[in-house]
Amino acid sequence: QVQLVESGGGLVRPGGSLRLSCAASGFTWDYYAIAWFRQAPGKERERVQCISLSDGSTDYADFMSGRFTISGDHGRNTVYLQMNSLKEEDTAVYYCAAGIFFYGSNCRDTEYNYWGQGTQVTVSS
């Protein structure tokens, strides 16, 4: 049974940083991709970044402009999202999700079927 548990959200001032964690269990690490999504009030959910756990290849949404970085630690079965230079518009509930990754594809094309409960990130002065 795939389980994903997010942590690390909170309140931060504009320009600050946070690191989100997604603790994963119940699946074979190398067969999956994990993505971070976010959803702000009144807005649609959007994908932030994703990573193939087998080869570490990543893909990020164009609006990220390099401020966020996704990484995976197989030893800890955890995927991280390092968020720097946070802006008020980054305020949202952040979710991690997992899906089976097909070798040679891009993680942006993965179908994400397993979801965590989300963690709130609030950027405000």
Task: Tell me what the structure shows.
- The chain is built from no helices and 11 strands.
- With 125 residues, it is mainly beta.
- Strands 2, 4, 5, 6, 9, 10 and 11 form a 7-stranded mixed beta sheet that branches.
- Strand 5 (46-52) and strand 6 form a beta hairpin.
- The mean pLDDT is 95.
Helix content: under 10%
Oligomer: single chain
Compute the average pLDDT. 95
Described by the principal axes of the CA atoms, the overall outline is: globular
Give the N-to-C terminal Cα separation: 40 Å
Percentage of residues in DSSP E strands: over 45%
Low-confidence stretches: none
Q: Give a short account of the largest sheet.
A: 7 strands, mixed
Order of helices and strands: EEEEEEEEEEE
Query: What is the number of helical segments per DSSP (H or I, 4+ residues)?
Result: 0
| Number of DSSP-assigned strands | 11
Measured on Cα atoms, how large is the radius of gyration? Answer: 14 Å
Secondary structure class reads mainly beta
A few lines on this structure:
This protein is an all-beta fold and 125 residues long. The protein has strands at 3-7, 10-12, 18-25, 32-39, 46-52, 58-60, 68-73, 78-83, 92-100, 114-115, 119-123. It is built from no helices and eleven strands.
How would the blueprint of this fold be written?
Elements: E1 3-7, E2 10-12, E3 18-25, E4 32-39, E5 46-52, E6 58-60, E7 68-73, E8 78-83, E9 92-100, E10 114-115, E11 119-123
Parallel strand pairs: 2-11
Antiparallel strand pairs: 1-3, 3-8, 4-5, 4-9, 5-6, 7-8, 9-10, 9-11
List keywords for this structure.
globular; 7-stranded mixed beta sheet; mainly beta; 11 strands; 125 residues; 4-stranded antiparallel beta sheet
